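1st attempt posting a full record on here, be nice pls
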Amino acid sequence: MPLPPSKPPPPSIAALQSLLATRLARLLDVDPDLRDAAVELGIIDRNWLDQPGEHKLSTAPPLEVTRRLLEKKVERKPSAFATLGLKAIDMLSWDMSWNRSPDTADDTTAEATVVFTDLEGFTRFTSDEGDTAALALLDEHQKVVMPIVRGWNGRLVKKIGDGRMLVFGNPSDAVHAAVELADSNAGPLAVRAGVNSGLAVITRDDVLGHVVNVAARVTDEANGGEALVTASVFVAVEGIANVGFTGPMTRPLKGIDTPMVLYRAQGL
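the predicted structure (as tokens):
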């Protein structure tokens, strides 16, 4: 009696995943808006789109995807901050080094000076004037910020809402830029700035580490029209031209174990 024909072996998990990846890539190809949104948010990696099944679907860690989603939301509707109970400065200073892709070959550790800025009273302005007026104000503010940053050899690392995270190669340039930014206004709103120097992990599109978190907390202590710097920055820029300092003042900072010594920088 002949044996019944044997059934073909079930496809391997890897082969099945490759098949599904190819089908998903084809689906995204016919919906460019969905594809572009998925790439922008980090849900899908560009390399995966080129060779589905050969690369990881996404290399962005979950916290990075969350931040990108919130950034996109706030870009369209600044009042979202009030709903979420967040501030721009908090989102920009999230230290994601614990939750990053293991592919860190392009990262470097180096001395950097980090500057944060935001607008005093932005949440109230958005509530009173609406999202359309807030977006117009931010657009004009960006036109003022970038010439100052570029003029002092800085780089805009990222922005969200009224907040800006900047990095500079030396403390003197950073302080000059922070003073000029604090002296500028965004419509009826005053700018405040915080500056800190130290070792940081520098990637292609971010700056990470304790130096970032301290700079963010220093900015929280500033009033509109003020630029505050840490003691390490003050010592590094001793004798800087056209800038004066008042202080020292010791302040407890949110999330920082020990009180910090700060100085107020102003143009002469």
